[in-house]
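Two records follow; treat each independently.
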Amino acid sequence: MLKGTYTEARYDGQLAEFELIREDKRNAMSDGLMAEIEQFYLTLPKDVRVVILHGRGGHYCSGLDLAEHVSRSAEEGVYHSRNWHRVMDMIQFGGVVTISAMTGAVIGGGLEMATATHVRIAEQSVVFQLPEGRRGIFVGGGATVRVGRILGADRMVEMMLTGRRYDADEGLRLGLCHYSVGEGEALPLARKLAKMIAENAPMSNFFMVNALARIDDMSRADGLFTESLAAALVQTTPDAEEGLRAFLEKRSPVFR
């Protein structure tokens, strides 16, 4: 176990759990918390294939800590936002699968972080919200792209203008989460899914988290060409051979 000021990490072979522990602030995002998230992903042991991300104290993450919000010049604001983008890209495209087990507040920057993860599980207490319009600010951690691609620009405009809240079941319908579960069920499901995902072929997982979102940004022709390259690379690995052999032998594959 590794404990920082704002986070706590536990490792178990191919799995890691990363918990936000600013419970007195509903795990609000500060520069210090962002730095610990970055450090966690930078220093993940090579054996780790799946991370479970969750928050202590009944909340996932309530977004930017407005109590620590400082006045910045436009130049400083750009650098601050781009740093968020860089860390969120580490989560989404670092090659390790991240599962969000969400409770309570998934607001502002918390929603930006959640949508950078690959599997999202929401308990009934979850509230999805982008309240920046009511705070006189604007999203800067990637929501225009990640949340916007899920909801569509039209629905996101209304969500931000009104401060509208969505619950877990509405989030499931809209795509903000992939599972809506009862109280106390998010972490057990996350652990079950993490074990299953960790058993996949590593290169298959790597290309799923790295290629699909990028292909979504491409033209049809470029996307199909990139798919061919990804398929050729993955299908020539020893794990692809093992997967085919296991299928023919009617047994479960054993990947590297």
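The next record belongs to a different protein.
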Amino acid sequence: MTPRDASDDSRWSDLERPPLNIAALRRGLVREGGLWRRVEVVERTGSTNTDLVDLATAGKAEEGTVLVAEEQTAGRGRLDRNWTAPPRSGLFFSVLLNPSEVPVTRWGWLPLLTGVAVATGLSRAAGVDTALKWPNDVLVTVGGEERKTGGILAERAGEAGVVIGVGINVTLRADELPVPQAASLALAGAASTDRDPVLRGMLRSLEDWYGRWRAAVGDPLVSGLQETYAAGCATLGKTVRAELPGDRAITGEAVAIDGDGRLVLATEEGVQEPVGAGDIVHLRPA
């Protein structure tokens, strides 16, 4: 990780993309009795998830640590896909959580919880409508088409910790998109693309939802998480293909999110099959 000297304005390679204000972030997020205890911003790193997992495993990070990178050179999504973007064009951060009072069997809800929190935070702070593609993609609408503007990746950190990484394209321009199906908040017409309040909004929302979920001992119904996720999930009601491990695939209508956070598909054979892992492809109507 390369720390940034906040006074070093010579690093501003793009004046339309100023660096994050670490002092303001700490003032707005770190408070007595709150979840966020430490906020760090680095200029450049391979992956904030990898760095924070390593710190947590070595006992050098506590719950509530937030690590943000202005640029990631080896960011990872699900299924080991690469995630790259120009410096300061997005928000790339990881958080360390330790939900010790929640049964491990319910930890699978954490990526979905983060999706709900991110969507809520973006709506409030950026003024942009979002949807969630199961299990962990954040979608915005550009030109009448739903496109991916962000993703979420959860990884275990030792026996008691979970590191959750979030990547959101904020000011990425059309000519900078890695694939045509990608998007950014700016391309979706967001009311604000100021990264400081957008980041604070997402982290405050995550603190709120994580607190509700912990207070309910991870119960997705009692915490309201299951209902809220389903309400914002763009996958439900669509015909999809689930590409599963072992080169197996299932096609059907996505009809529900079950109590374990799995996507339930109704197949042509009349079977309702839950999918807990895999790549989901939204199929266009015939």
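Discussion point: The first strand starts at residue 2 and ends at 3. How would you locate this feature using only the token line?
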